[in-house]
Amino acid sequence: MKTILLPTDFSENSWNAIVYTLQLFKNNTCTFHLLHTYTPVILQYDYQSVGASQYGLADAMKSTSEMQLQALLERIKGKFNNPKHTFLTSAAFNTLTLEIESLYNGNAIDIIAMGTKGTSGVKGVLFGSNTVHVLNNAKCPVLAIPSDFSYEEPHEILFPSDYEVDFKASQIKPIVDIANMYGARVNILHVNYGEDLTELQDKNRNTLEGFFTSVAHLFHDIKNKSVASAISDFQLKARVNLLVMLNNKHSFFENIFFKSKINQIGFHLNIPFLVIPSKVS
């Protein structure tokens, strides 16, 4: 049984992410945890001395959040009636990242699934600020779904790697699980500028290949392109419908998405994106 966290801000973007996730795991026995977090504006000033409860603000926000969560749950049950799926709801006076950390420490999350943008939906920006924080800090896999992506079964999975990671079975298992669920093929993409693999890279590549023996997979070597361009070009050419990357600190993942290039790939990344942390329990 999987426990899947579905953070929501009640936007259509987050609804689309929920719809995608429920369909992706339609054949799995799952508990879905619908989470809405809120922080009263007064917290930004002198919350400790003033006390939001004096104004009834925190109570009012909690009540509103709980009503919206109940309405969301009814919307889900009206569209999906899957006996394999159960639901929990939670309205939390907290920031999203801190609440996720608390839930994770309580062994309550296997996967986080969320939309790529929040209610603001700023054009030209790949990830909303909440998504960026979650991707950067999550200790379990995070599935980010673009707001305009309609569900389709993942049949071509793209997994770029620089082979600089000492791969562990726990990191690769989420990819293998999805590939097995849908008979998908995993495309392992390596970008280089004509150099041979180092001894360490060659060792890591062989380790990686061993983890994919139970699923269809292909290795691809692309030369003289930026990683961002190679990902964009390959996903269009091969009709990829799931991108997977390891978020390894100081890796090329970090360089692409959390430094100067965060918008460089934003106009091309229009498929679901599974991010696996370097340490997965």
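Next protein, fold it too.
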Amino acid sequence: MADNTRLATLADLRTEIDALDDQILSLLNRRAGLARQVGELKQQTGDAQFWRPEREAAVLQRLMSANQGPLTDEAVGRLFREVMSACLALEKPVTVAYLGPEGTFTQLAARKHFGQAANLQPVSSIGEVFRQVQASQADFGVVPVENSTEGSVNLTLDHLLEFPLRIAGEVQLRIVHNLVSRGTAIKDMQRLYVHYQTRAQCRRWLAEHAPHLTLIEVSSNAEAARRARDEEGAGAISTTVAAEIYGLEILAAGIEDDSENTTRFLVIGQQDVAPMGRDKTSLVLSAPNRPGSLQELIQPIAAAGISMTRIESRPARHGLWQYVFFLDLEGHAETPELQPVLAELEKKATYFKLLGSYPQAVF
């Protein structure tokens, strides 16, 4: 009798879930219809900015703040990111260039930011991502800019200087490295294919578990997986997605030295982004070559109470021992708090370039 009661209760719960699913489906399609109307209105008014990152970030932030569980805030963010991705595709599918091939962390970052409905196109290099966006062959690009363990990706910084593009967003992705092969045990391997940053992020594990292997650097984690699939006696350090794509077995998971290993990616495009309330501004500048000049140059930032979350130096590529400095500031360039600070920095600097203001990563 007790079992019949339990089964009846389970049946009731499933009936209620089915009814809720029907309501959710109806509401999702209603939302999609409104999104389609937004797209039609934009076409009528000549609004070319069909994707508004500040609007998406504000919606996600509001919903995550309103969340009362039991779903986690991140789960809510991911669910609604996909809802917005599918609805945006009714207006116009977004084309996003990323460092390929399929299965790279950059692809995972692009999916996290743009959702499953985006049209992702892999390219062969970070420079090619910039070129695709500059030539309007892609609406946006996603590139790695810094890792919590190994620091900045210098190629990305150099291309930010070279190309007249804007940063339109950022993505933070937890990085998990796996040892993969097509079934070859680690003791029987001779070669291990690995990206240079991945190698650095797994330094201790490699020294302890794979000192006998010849390490061969490749352009991406996905390329490492492809090589391991095609060669006898080879392994790779790669992503779970790449292992699935190339039919490889995961021999050891999570072999990165730092369990909090995270990479920050930038979304690049040709449009300026409006403020959303939790913004970040990136810029690059140089100071006169004299003692104390950098401290004097950035003094207005501290005086205005603006938080500087990052500063990074790079050779200026003109003049011996000349440097430029990449800065990330909290706030948006169009706000009254930051506008006068940027104006003063531009006046004092020997070189000044605003790279963009954009929403901070939501999850």
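About the second fold: Residues 65 and 73 are 8 Å apart (CA to CA).
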